[in-house]
Here is the input.
Amino acid sequence: MSKAVRVTAAAAVLLLFGGALFFLQTGGNGGAAAGVAPLDLSTSDSCRDCHADIWAEWQSSFHAQSFTDPLVLAKEQSNNFRNQACIPCHAPEPVFETGLGKVRVIERVTQRERGVDCLSCHRAFGAVVGPAMRSPGAANAPCAPIGDAQLASPALCAPCHNQHNTVDEWESSRYPATGVTCLDCHMQPVERKNADGRVRRGRSHRFPGGHDLETLQKAATIEAAVARSDDGSRRLVVRLTNSGAGHNYPADARHRALDLVVTLIQQDGVLLPPRDGGRGYGRERGTERRRFRNPYREETERLTNRELFGRENTQIGSGETITFEVPFDPAAVASARVELIYKLTPIQTDDEGVRVHDQVILLR
Ligand code: HEC
Ligand code: HEC
Ligand code: HEC
Ligand code: HEC
Ligand code: HEC
Here is the structure.
């Protein structure tokens, strides 16, 4: 329903109860039912009182932590937000008010520690925005949600998430054509109990992503097989496909890193050491390794990437397959371990990272 239509409907209801002019003049909160105190839409606290289940999900999400997350506060990052350029997306004004789509977010001055809170996504000029298809109970809800299809669209995520191109990447993936949006992978359907006891279909507000192993495991598939060349030499061929992310993997180009590590193992169990000296990153483990990431302009990793991959940005596009070949001597090598290690920051060690995939392959 458009805003104009809703205001008219609310006004009609209020006229029946009298006092309509008073409510319209105090404005902003036109949806409040007569006799009920208007909702305080200057803070998300009011949402918590009636939507405790969603509040709990949100609190466990990184949206709730975006202003208190130690990784963001770190000295070399926002330095406790002394770098003010970091504040807008991490403590935003409501995006329905500052603009949907690929536009700038504006920083909030109150309750910054709440991070990306309910109001950031649900407040629009003194009203609450809800799903286009309102649940039966929502028609009389004290918060009077306005149905708006834009709430479910990638345009809602874009002001904050397109800084690193995630929405552009989704647009050029195979997903828009099949109607698969951000919500299908990041807001799972859940059942909720309405205030009147009826059950409605809602969406989880946990927003799993790079901190969630299950989500990471959905992102890619790995195939490994031995190939033999005409001259009799052999190589292990590893094919890594971004089969489950609706954008590049790893999604966040700069903060994250994804390392593919292949370790060749001799018959006597000895692990073969790095063949190329590690090429500037991740020397700790493996005979050969490749890193998937979009390094900053000044990083030498760009040069290494150009040499090894023929491109500077090595994030794996949605649907893309990377083929990685590791030659080996069949007389000496018995097996290979193939690991995919996800790192929240590029400086994490292999042991600090999360092993998304780990497999030992016999080579004879
Ligand atoms: C006084 C209680 C109350 C408060 C406060 C409240 N809500 Fe609601 N809200 C409800 C009820 C009741 C419903 C109808 C569904 C239900 O019964 O749970 C509802 C429905 C909704 C819906 C639509 C659900 C649907 O399926 O259509 C949204 C979105 C929503 N609320 C968001 C908010 C936000 C954001 C806040 C904080 C600004 C808020 N609400 C504050 C009681 C409240
Ligand atoms: C107002 C800004 C803003 C909007 C709008 C927004 N996000 Fe976020 N989102 C953030 C910030 C900031 C973080 C990072 C929080 C942190 O880890 O510090 C984040 C984190 C995430 C994460 C990552 C969690 C993790 O494990 O690292 C996912 C997934 C996510 N958002 C999905 C979405 C989707 C999908 C939408 C649209 C429906 C959306 N976000 C809308 C700002 C926003
Ligand atoms: C345009 C919006 C925007 C601005 C401005 C912004 N960020 Fe973020 N930031 C995000 C989003 C969205 C995410 C989470 C999604 C992702 O990882 O892609 C995020 C995630 C992060 C993370 C990862 C958090 C984690 O839990 O792993 C760090 C660190 C970070 N930002 C630091 C910064 C710093 C430092 C600045 C300022 C120099 C900054 N951000 C400015 C939107 C923004
Ligand atoms: C990052 C953006 C974002 C944040 C933060 C957020 N929501 Fe939502 N919310 C959405 C989206 C997107 C939908 C689904 C819209 C649809 O399905 O059409 C939704 C759906 C809902 C619904 C209806 C579906 C259901 O699960 O019941 C309610 C109620 C709701 N949100 C309340 C809240 C409350 C309360 C908070 C704060 C604790 C909150 N939201 C925080 C984006 C957000
Ligand atoms: C087909 C499923 C799918 C779709 C569609 C999808 N994602 Fe993801 N997303 C994933 C998977 C799987 C991951 C984990 C792997 C990764 O980090 O790339 C992920 C990770 C993320 C992260 C975590 C980044 C981090 O560093 O923690 C953010 C943010 C994100 N997605 C935002 C979005 C947004 C915004 C959209 C819509 C424009 C979207 N996603 C569409 C599957 C999807």
In short: Residues 1-34 have pLDDT under 50 and may be disordered. The longest strand covers residues 333-343. Residues 154, 157, 161, 166-167, 170, 175, 180, 182, 184-186, 209-210, 215-216, 218-219, 244-247, 249-252, 256 surround heme C (ligand 5) (CB under 6 Å). Residues 3-17 form the longest helix (15 residues).
